[in-house]
Amino acid sequence: MATQKNSPLRQHHFLLRRLHSLSGIVPIGVFLILHLTTNATILWGVLNSRAGSDMLARRVGTFQEEVSFINGLPALLLIELTLWISLGFHSILGVYYAFSGRPNVREYPYPDNWRYTLQRVSGYVGILFIFYHVATLRWGWSFLVPGGTQWSHNFAASTLAAAMQGSEQGYTVAGIAVSLFYFVGVSLLVYHFANGLWTAAITWGLTISEQAQKRWGFVCAGLGAGMMLLAWASIIGFATLDYDAAAEIEGAMHSETNIPAAAQSHADNTNP
Amino acid sequence: MAHASTIKNFKNTPKPDRTVQFRIKRCDGPGQPSRYESFNVPIESGSNVISCLQYIAANPITVTGQKTTPVVWDAGCLEEICGACTMVINGKVRQSCSCLIDEYAPHEGDVITLEPMSKFPVVRDLWVDRQRLFESLEKVSAWVPIDGSYDLGPGPQETPQQSEMRYTLSTCMSCGCCLEACPQYQKEDDASSWDTSFIGAAPLSQARLFNEHGTGRQLKGARLDALMGPGGINDCGNAQNCVKVCPKEIPLTESIAAVGRAVTIHSFTRFFTGK
Ligand code: SF4
Ligand code: SF4
Ligand code: FES
Fold this sequence. Notes:
Structural class of chain B: alpha+beta
CATH topology of the largest domain in chain B: Fumarate Reductase Iron-sulfur Protein, Chain B, domain 2
CATH superfamily of chain A: Fumarate reductase/succinate dehydrogenase, transmembrane subunit
Structural class of chain A: mainly alpha
Largest interface: A-B, 41 and 43 residues
Number of strands of chain A: 0
Bound molecules: iron/sulfur cluster, FE2/S2 (inorganic) cluster
Distance between the termini of chain A: 77 Å
Oligomer: heterodimer
Strand content of chain B: 5-15%
Strand content of chain A: under 5%
Helix content of chain A: over 70%
Order of helices and strands of chain A: HHHHHHHHHH
Largest sheet of chain A: none
């Protein structure tokens, strides 16, 4: 009967659904914006005149500063834990929810229906991408990186460029695939966030009228476009970065300050 | 709006005395296998799918000359009011009584495919059982509670804007188009799972209709409770197909968002008041 009192299971369902919606925005979406902004310094770092006059030094230097800053954050582990829990929660529940739908764009090829379908596809691809991204760069699973490059905090830009290009000497075929995967993965995630932000406003009941939904759509599209630019700037920045030149700049940065021994030995390895 | 694309195709003048082929998905009864059979139908100007089905019922002979059983379908009003004749025509769901052959098949030998809706159990051929939809309306108490043994007095006042908005919602004929086109609404053969499977746009919109009614509001809490659980409002995936196929042009996505808002407020209120 409709008037039946709520069982704990029903309340559970509602709470989980809304937490799924919320977690995609805070913390995951907020983190995505910050993360893309940081990464894009590899291109817009040229504007940072504090980092010297050489354009490459500005780019690599600014990015390295950002990475070092993040690594020095006081509660970094707590931030990471929050993100991992949120990502795990959002992914697992998201896949579970997505399985309840059966896309029908063939019969009903409306743009909104494509949007709905792409939201699910971008979720699946996004999970694979984030897994690869975190496993190779954070957990150090270098066997998944063509050329086996280990990402280093202290050689942030150079080692990332090598990981994306496939080797420290520049592009390999596998490297092109990795770079493309980055391009597709990041673009889909930005879409997933922008569209998710749009539908969240319907889910929570913020935008009711068609006009309100349309207006909010422009806001989300604008935000998405801006994030897409940041994402592509990052990818172009790293995909075109010269490993040796970047590593030299980073090495010089660390020799002025205290370099952890491991990084020093890495510097020695890479710049004999 | 719903059939704008088909109306656009109406540009070439239909050929007057032509024959159109109907390819029909047939099924002899619940649980029986289905098959396709084709029939040639001579077209008069103004023919619609139902009049062609009547011709086929009178002449149940397939294109290969085989005699077969008459095709079964459901219909009532023949003017897009009752929703009974809803079926899938050329892959898209719509009412068959208002489906004009001149729009769909203007040329000699054009083919029109008719299939029953896929989200409801087939009774026979093109006739489906929409019982689940009616039970969903029951689940959301889609009525105004006026039962009682005493005079309730005059109803509450309503603004013209309010009644205009509710009028649009009240034109829903429970046809099932919005459910058929919804990627989140699946066919459920087991009736015991109906209560927890996604309820679809029409009942959500009806819940809004009666929540907005001066007296119907009394059951608002119960309606929202019913829509907060599994199969309720949260299972909508915002594909927004429903609003595009609704023959009554009911703003279903606005209803969905309005129920979303009501449920958000309802849950917060409940959290902080403990009620
Ligand atoms: S909302 Fe529209 S499509 Fe859905 S059942 Fe009612 S009239 Fe049909
Ligand atoms: S908006 Fe919701 S109810 Fe409408 S078609 Fe999409 S998933 Fe179904
Ligand atoms: S017969 Fe009533 S809507 Fe077609």
